[in-house]
Amino acid sequence: MTAEQIIFLLTGALIFSAALMVVTTRNLVHAALWLVAVLFGVAVLYAILQAGFLAVVQIVVYIGAIAILFIFAVMLTRKEMRDKGPQTRANWWIAALLGLLVLAGLVFLILSQPDINRTAVAMPEGLDTVRVLGTALVSPDAYVLPFEVASVLLLAALVGSVYIAGIGKKP
Amino acid sequence: MTFWNDPINFIANWLTGLLTGWGLSTGLATIIEYALGITVMIVFAMVLDIFLVWVERKVVARFQDRLGPNRIGPFGLIQPFADIIKLVIKEDITPANADKIVFNIAPVLAATSVIVLWAILPLSSKIFGVDLNVALLYLVAAGALGTLAIIMAGWSSNNKYALLGAFRMVANMVSYEIPMVVTLLIPTILANTMSVQGITRAQSGMWFAILSPLAFVIFFISAIAELGRSPFDLIEAESELTAGFNVEYSGMKFGWFYASELLHAFTFGGFMAVLFFGGYGGFFGLEKLLPWLNNPFLQALVFIAKAMFGYWAIMWIKYSMPRVRIDHMLAFNWKFLTPLALVVLVNTAILNKALAGLPAWGYTLGMFFSNVVIAVITVEILRAHGRKQRKAEKKLTPQMARNQEQAP
After folding, report:
1. CA-CA distance, B15 to B12, in Å (whole number)?
2. Are both A77 and A136 inside the same structural domain?
3. What's the pTM value of the predicted model, to 2 decimals?
4. In this structure, are A2 and A63 located in the same domain?
């Protein structure tokens, strides 16, 4: 086993157990913290796949935002921040069955890929992935349209939230 | 390749030879070397941190017209060790109703969020951890971890002051992250890369602080806010919150917060040097005439001197400015810094292409004077705004007086 495989297996175990803790822990703030662990694990996966940009953005966007989620969890929940009710419903087994079916389907799909055992091609020396990504985002024959549409959407959301916040206030 | 030209690779080659000579595989030898390298880097950062405690105490004493520690050792140099012994032997208290695991992870995470920054800090052209092509985003990501550590500390302490401090920290970090990220884009545009080595090399002719002084000023202000230092130290306003997020911490756990704050300030001094003052280089082309300036040890000395100056400037502001009120702090960011940062960014992006054909001096002058024009316009707008506000206040006062007379 190479070092990369060991890191992958450890990260996978971290993501899996942390994700399990997110849904089973009764403390909302702990759930947010376990979610941070899951998202950090995903960032490590990106780093193993040599997608450094995605890994860093994953941490900036998700862990930075989880911090905010954390604050909202603290402010919006009851004093002791514990849920004492039952954790499952009567039809939990249907959800479990569906989840297992989706897992089986995914595993089947991945295993049926012809080149599943192929090792990844090494990146050419001196390739600046960020530069390639940046060029692709603004070149007309690549992703400039989706990129601009997403920007306009975000701007619209920003303007809309400012407008809603300003309703009923004197200018 | 000798030790003086390329110390890290020299030692690494020697270690590889030694370890493979002992019968280890090359892969294992590489892993051991990386682990050793990381350990040495962390130890260097932490030892520097001990020294920073002394620097901080001496400098604050000078600003406040005192002498500072001067009893233990020459110039009080052994004082930090006395501080450490005091912190280590202090009773380690965990509040009874605290969330114990989160409470204990928080100081570790706070220190981690600073030490990971040293991975990308270029001490010299040959002495650095890793040359990432997303280094500037990595800087922002490490800041997100620092925020998380402070919130964890504030929440798990189960103390209302600590929680309030953490809430303020989020407001502070989330808002000042925006001008900071925008100003990080300006060196990226000027150097055409996000790698810190590339940014340093791009400044060998001219510092970015001269090409875009406004970007430097905005970065400096938002860096201080990101550090949570005065005048943005609302997270630990001792007169309102006793000590903010770390009020329940004692002994070495408090020590970790304190140490990571000092190291963070120094590290940001280092990043200011890298992004705007040429980092380890930036001798204005002098290194072509005097090749000994390219010695990695000399470069490391130059870098640490520049970083120290940045750290000193941060302390200078910390110990001579009063704390700002929270609504002023947020208004200053959203109504002033963020729009200004965006204007400077657009200006830099356009002029960088428009002036690309000019010779170096024309490009530099164009960039510099465009910044001066923006600064003058900003000051004029601020003055007009201030005048309007003062007029409105004058008008209001007699009316308010009449209202008070009419009131029973």
Report:
1. 5
2. no
3. 0.86
4. yes
In angstroms and rounded to an integer, the radius of gyration of the C-alpha atoms of chain A is 21
Angle at B45 between CA B44 and CA B51, to 5 degrees: 90
A55: containing domain: 1-82
Residue A72 forms part of a structural domain: yes
Instruction: Look up the ipTM and state it.
Output: 0.79
How far away is chain A from the Cα of B155, in angstroms, using its nearest Cα?
A: 8
Instruction: List residues bridging with A82 in a β-sheet.
Output: A27
b/e map of B276-309 (b: 16 or more CB within 10 Å)?
bbbbbbbbeeebeeeeeebbbeebbebbbebbbe
Question: Do the domain assignments include residue A11?
Answer: yes
Domain count, chain A: 2
- Select from B137, B148, B194 the Cβ nearest to the Cβ of A67: B148
With an 8 Å Cβ cutoff, are A64 and B177 in contact?
A: yes
Amino acid at A61: V
For residue A68, being part of any structural domain is answered with yes
Parts of chain B with a pLDDT under 50:
none
Return the bridge partners of A27, or none: A82
- Domain assignment present for A9: yes
Q: B148 and A68 in contact by Cβ < 8 A?
A: no
Q: What is the distance in angstroms between the Cα of A107 and the nearest Cα belonging to chain B?
A: 32
Of A52, A63, A68, the CB nearest to B174: A68
The predicted-structure confidence for B195-228, as pLDDT tens digits, reads as follows: 888 888 888 878 888 888 999 999 999 999 888 7
Could you tell me the two tokens for B182?
């925008």
CA distance B325 to B172: 12
- Which CATH number characterizes residue A46's domain? 1.20.120.1200
Alpha-carbon distance of B249 to A141, in angstroms, equals 56
Q: If 0-12 CB within 10 Å is exposed, 13-18 middle and 19+ buried, where does residue B77 land?
A: middle
Local structure of B249: helix, strand or coil: coil
